[in-house]
Amino acid sequence: MLDDAHAAFKMRYPASITFSRAIFLNWYCPLDCKFCFMSVEKSNISSPKAARRTPASILTEAFLCSKLGWDIEFLSSGYRVLENEYLLRLLKSLYEVTGKKQWLNTGALSKQELEFFKPYIEGSCGAVETVNPIIHDKVCRNKPVAPIINMFKACDELGLRKAMTLIIGMGETIADFPKLQEFIERHAIDRITVYALNPIKGTMFTKSPEADYYIEWLARTRISFPRMEIIAGIRNERLDTIRQLAYLGVNAITKFIALRQFNSKDARFIEEEIAGAGRILQGSLTKLPDIELEEIDAFMLEPERKEQMKRTLTSYLEMMHRNTVLSKTI
Ligand code: SF4
After folding, report:
1. Domains in the chain: how many in total?
2. For residue 300, what are the domain limits?
3. Minimal CA–CA distance to 101: which of 67, 69, 62, 68?
4. Distance from Cα 36 to the centre of ligand 1, integer Å
5. Which atom of ligand 1 approaches the CA of 143 most closely?
6. Is the pTM of this model over 0.90?
7. Cα dihedral angle (300, 306, 310, 316), rounded to 10 degrees?
8. How far apart are the CA of 139 and the centre of ligand 1, in A?
9. Mind listing the pLDDT tens digit of every residue in the chain (330 residues)?
10. For position 97, which CATH number holds?
């Protein structure tokens, strides 16, 4: 099956593969999806409004991603918790810093909201999570799929792209794969991010799916949808799957804690495995970028924001440099 997936991928795509980083905007969500760390953390958050990152931190991370050659997968937040005006200001600043429109993964948006963001977004992601309706009802009862489908229809009307997320290992079986096929076809999904369940302490889940089972979902997806963009989540304890994921033809990998683990043993292993699969990683998980703090001065942002960005960038670079020095002694 991996060879078939590889052949399907190779006919349509070059050998390159990217590292795609989801940028988190906050850590509070009013919903209670049964697998999610935000649903567990909720009780510890006294001020939901304060549980968000500073714009300078978000902008600096995005700037660093572009310097490292990484894609920004999407901007992710708790379900519809950020004010639209705030989000629009952030999107404008991100466009200034990266020169790119972003994807949103901030909850199901109405047509009016999508229109509001349209000049600065490429598309919107529906956090579908599972295509098995019984499991969906069990794990995401308060996040119904119908508003996501309405958002996809609005995306079509506005010429925006559509993405979805899928988590493997919540009780579905491979017999559910036709449901995924049907969903992708019916809504003409442009991009899918597939994750293996990461069991969070305090949730109802205690184990991840078997690696072969996770890979089978991705291989079948590639064979069924040779043109669709596929992003695969990877986890540190499952890095031995990278070579197979790269070989079967995912377009990008995500979820690796790439800044904190920059140039770590794991980061170097990922690069080796990708090369071993005959793929070429765009950007780097191991080489410090050529970057000057003064580059931030060129952005059309408030002076105070730029100074905050410089301070944040300095801390990021110190952390990444520390890893690089440490790695030479290991
Ligand atoms: S909507 Fe998203 S962030 Fe909120 S609990 Fe569900 S999965 Fe977590």
Report:
1. 1
2. 2-329
3. 62
4. 6
5. 1
6. yes
7. -80
8. 10
9. 999 999 999 999 999 999 999 999 999 999 999 999 999 888 888 888 889 999 999 999 999 999 999 999 999 999 999 999 999 999 999 999 999 999 999 999 999 999 999 999 999 999 999 999 999 999 999 999 999 999 999 999 999 999 999 999 999 999 999 999 999 999 999 999 999 999 999 899 999 999 999 999 999 999 999 999 999 999 877 898 999 999 999 999 999 999 999 999 999 999 999 999 999 999 999 999 899 999 999 999 999 999 999 999 999 999 998 877 666 554
10. 3.20.20.70
Distance, in Å, from the CA atom of 217 to the CA atom of 233, rounded to the nearest integer, reads 12
Residue nearest ligand 1's atom 6 by CA = 33
Give the distance from CA 324 to its chain's centroid. Answer: 25
- List b or e across 246-283, with b for residues whose CB sees 16 or more CB atoms inside 10 angstroms: bbbbbbbbbbbebbebbbbebbeebbebbeebebebeb
CA–centroid distance, residue 127 to ligand 1 (Å): 8
